[in-house]
Amino acid sequence: MTATGNAIGPSEALGTLFTPAGKRNPYPLYEALRELGPVVRLGPKLVFVQGHDACAAALREPGLLVTDASVHRKTGMIEHSSWQCFTKIMMFSNGTDHDRLRNFSRWAYHPQSITGLRPMIEDKAKELAERLVTCDSATVDLVEGFSSRLTLAVTGELYGIPVADQLALRSTITDTTTAFEPIFDLAELADGDAGMDVLVGYMTDLVASRRREPRDDLATRMVHEADAAGTVTNDELVAGLVMFLIAGVQSPSDLIAGAIRMALRKPAQFQATDAEAFVTEVLRFDAPSQVLTRVAERDLTLDGVPVKAGARVMLLLAAANRDPSRYDEPDVFRPHRTPNRPLSFGLGMHYCLGAQLSRVQAEIGLTTLTRHFPHMSLEDEPHYRDQLVQRGLARLTVRLRPRDTRHQAML
Ligand code: HEM
């Protein structure tokens, strides 16, 4: 046992974090790591940041860059389809390239535009909940049957992607997110690469089709902007659309499924809280994006710890969200915390463009489903995907109605 009562020491915790067991439940490992301080230097080339204030400062530190094409060229990853595409998007660009790409599409996710999407999102959520009402089986997987369908339906509506295509692309989208995990062998990129080839092909065709036949959707508006302004190349446009598809579907689906699970685990808290505060606490308690990576552009210090130029800096957002110096009893799920401002959407110049849309989808998804199924209950232990950076439930099996209702109905 360690000083904090952890059965595991900090070095063992670091070694375990990216193993399947660590990915399943990283929280005791974050707690063990906390003994090492808010910023941990593991030699000259690797630094972990886990304290809340240190993480927030690191996100705003201009000397810490995202891993762009120059970094992925050195590792050889840029030869792979997944990173060929990701290095063309704002999330993995720095400086003027980042600003150019962000300015090109930021209008699409402006909070005012998102407010106008509420009725559409409510309709989609209601449609999916009603589909479950007519479902015969006693238990359903809500990742398959609700959370991913909702975010696919919303993104599909925005970009004009037909329902059949949405469902056909669903597992491909999840596959591409495996490229965000720490890669120890380039062969581990195989699934992400295969998925990326499909998505790039799909979006290339979509762009060509919108050029031929414009429609009233975001894809058409982005094609029009790209052609009129000439500030992004066709490859960057396609990569941007791929990113909006992946980001629009995967993390929000993970958030919705996680929120439903917490509502079922903590029904009294769910009933006593408004959906916005509840979703915020889900974001703090179990962030869909747990880790971000930065590279130091120059020698700098983080919370007094020297960081050498070229060092990789891992920002453990999910550990920062449970920093006891920021949150009382951080391992307790408590939706009434004030202030409650988790770092789950990042901070600073790369702050998530889809934060507002994700929150709105999660709030609507959660309230719509629980209204349709007030007696829903968890049927299974949580089953997470084997991913840490992009954490989320692989399945969420629930019983939609009380055990005896259907039986009584048959009598
Ligand atoms: C629960 C859902 C989501 C979570 C937890 C999440 C998380 C994040 C985080 C942590 C970042 C910061 C990355 C960094 O600093 O390196 C980020 C950036 C970004 N997110 Fe999200 N995201 C979510 C949903 C979305 C959605 C729905 C979209 C759009 C469809 C989106 C688009 C973006 C974009 C474009 C960036 C990059 C911004 C930039 O580099 O300037 N995200 N997201």
Automatic annotation (TrEMBL):
Residues making up the signal peptide according to the UniProt record: none
UniProt-listed Gene3D superfamilies: Cytochrome P450
Domain of life: Bacteria
Annotated PROSITE patterns: CYTOCHROME_P450
Keywords: Heme, Iron, Metal-binding, Monooxygenase, Oxidoreductase
InterPro entries xref list: Cyt_P450 (IPR001128), Cyt_P450_B (IPR002397), Cyt_P450_CS (IPR017972), Cyt_P450_sf (IPR036396)
PANTHER family: CYTOCHROME P450 YJIB-RELATED (PTHR46696:SF1), P450, PUTATIVE (EUROFUNG)-RELATED (PTHR46696)
Similarity field: Belongs to the cytochrome P450 family.
Protein name: Cytochrome P450
Organism, scientific name: Kibdelosporangium banguiense
